[in-house]
Amino acid sequence: MRLFLLATAAAYLTCAAAALAADKTVHDREHGFSLTYPEEWASETAFDNTIRLKIKSGEGALTCRVSENAYDPTAPNNPSDVRAFMEEDWKVSNWQTMVGVAYQAAAFRQDRLAHFPDGYPVRIAEMDFHYADENVSFYGHSRIALTLRSSHYGFVDCGVAGDNSEEVERKWAPLADEAEKIVSSFVLDAD
Known about the structure:
Layout lengths: L1 H19 L2 E6 L4 E6 L3 E4 L5 E6 L6 E8 L11 H8 L3 H6 L6 E11 L5 E12 L4 E12 L3 E11 L2 H8 L3 H10 L1 E2 L3
Keywords: Signal
């Protein structure tokens, strides 16, 4: 009986500690976005000229990147009415044009329309990808949220990488809900 009570107490304390693990919300005013993620995750800011925040749950686990940059609606081939583009004119092929070009191969699925708290549209999808250059080659899977405002655009990409698609699938399965939670917390500030 004593062993049962000790095991029950240990389980309760473990659950209580997990419940106390807080989420951290970052609001980057300079680049105009917010993201919420587990407080214990490692983070880097000012990663490069477009990646504004990079967070990691641990070695070889989930990595999320937030990108934000200026958007010019008057530039050739850029939609001038970005809200209508995101809500009404969007095609799954736009994922390839806007995100997939950075990879050797990328396939997008489960595209859906969501909205920020202020009602502004955001597209969310999953991506299977292969990246290769002269130094490295890897496969990956991620969930992505992407939006355009009239003066800037942004996206968050949360995913895993591995040597082959089977390894990526094994890594992704236990992390999918966490990735969805983080991606769904992304907000690009209004203009």
